[in-house]
Design brief:
312 residues; alpha/beta; transcription; LysR_HTH_N; two-stranded antiparallel sheet; eight-stranded mixed sheet; DNA-binding
């Protein structure tokens, strides 16, 4: 059904006159009459009674007007709504972050987005990268920041930065000797607690160890960051993490962190989106905010977070 003809119907009905409606609309009365006639032919019913004082709606015309008026108004409001969405985007964007990334800029992402786009709400879901990847593929997330994620038929990735990896050791007494240097080979000398093999950090470590011909002494596998850190604090094992994951414990003096420098170990942070999920303006804005925050953290090396730019 032609939207323009419905608009003409509303005008003629408002003035009870073809001539008055034509004058207001700035079109010739015969042309207006032809459009209404075509609408009547399309509906298969008479829409107006013609009489000496003008016109009035038939019962069928009243029914059509009653049903068409809200639709026409909604359609007419679309351009203004789209402009409003552009000027002040709204809605919900759900972001998946690993615990390390959540500690790094989770709060900053929420507050920065709130300040810039008050109508846009950001929900943050945290978990190890393997779980976050599954949630993204399942459609529970709009985007995610993952460790060493790879492009696939279901996930598109955009490199953000690299996080240096640190040898994390307890400050308390242990039943084993702590290595004198934080090197990759030292990982074979102490018991380790690591995430399971579903997660990017574990894969990064195992690949590096295999490449160097080193065996990892993994005594505990834990997929909860807080428990993993508690195991290290208690002196049962050491681990490898990016520095932002242990900032609170470092400040409290319960953990010690030394950057692994022989060889340099890093985990790549990747911005990931589901290929088949619609990308809204809100999602684009949150993506831009994440990239901006990462760029700022890379530039501000004084923070000591161990975040560096990716090599070209």
């Amino acid at each position: 059904m032609d939207l323009r003809r419905l608009e003409l119907l509303m005008q003629v009905a408002a003035f009870d006159s073809f001539s008055k409606a034509a004058t207001v609309l700035g079109i010739a009365q015969p042309a207006l009459g032809r459009q209404i006639q075509k609408l009547e032919e399309e509906c298969g019913v008479r829409l107006f009674y013609r009489h000496g004082r003008g016109v009035s709606l038939t019962p069928e015309g009243e029914t059509l007007l009653h049903r068409a008026r809200p639709l026409v108004r909604q359609l007419a409001a679309i351009p203004a709504d789209l402009q409003s969405e552009r000027d002040s985007p709204c809605g919900l964007v759900t972001v998946g972050l690993t615990p390390t990334v959540c500690n790094l800029f989770g709060l900053k992402l929420i507050t920065a987005t709130r300040d810039k786009y008050p109508q846009l709400r950001v929900n943050v879901v945290s978990g190890y990268s393997g779980y976050v990847h599954e949630w993204l593929v399942d459609g529970r997330l709009d985007m995610a920041v993952l460790h060493d994620a790879r492009r696939s038929s279901t996930v598109a990735v955009d490199p953000l930065a690299a996080a240096e990896l640190f040898f994390i050791m307890p400050s308390a007494d242990t039943a084993f000797d702590l290595p004198a240097e934080a090197t990759l080979s030292a990982l074979s000398e102490v018991p380790l607690v690591l995430p399971t093999r579903n997660h990017g950090l574990r894969r990064t470590l195992e690949y590096a160890a295999s490449d160097a011909g080193i065996g990892l002494n993994v005594q505990y596998e834990v997929d909860t960051l807080e428990l993993l850190k508690q195991i290290v604090v208690s002196g049962l094992a050491c681990t490898v993490l990016a520095k932002p994951a242990v900032l609170k414990e470092l400040a409290a003096g319960t953990l010690i962190a030394h950057r692994i420098a022989s060889p340099d170990l890093q985990t790549k942070l990747m911005l990931a989106t589901a290929v088949r999920r619609p990308i809204t303006r809100g999602i684009r804005l949150v993506e831009q905010e994440i990239k901006s925050l990462v760029t700022e953290l890379v530039a501000n090396k004084a923070d000591g977070f161990g975040l560096v730019a990716l090599e070209p």
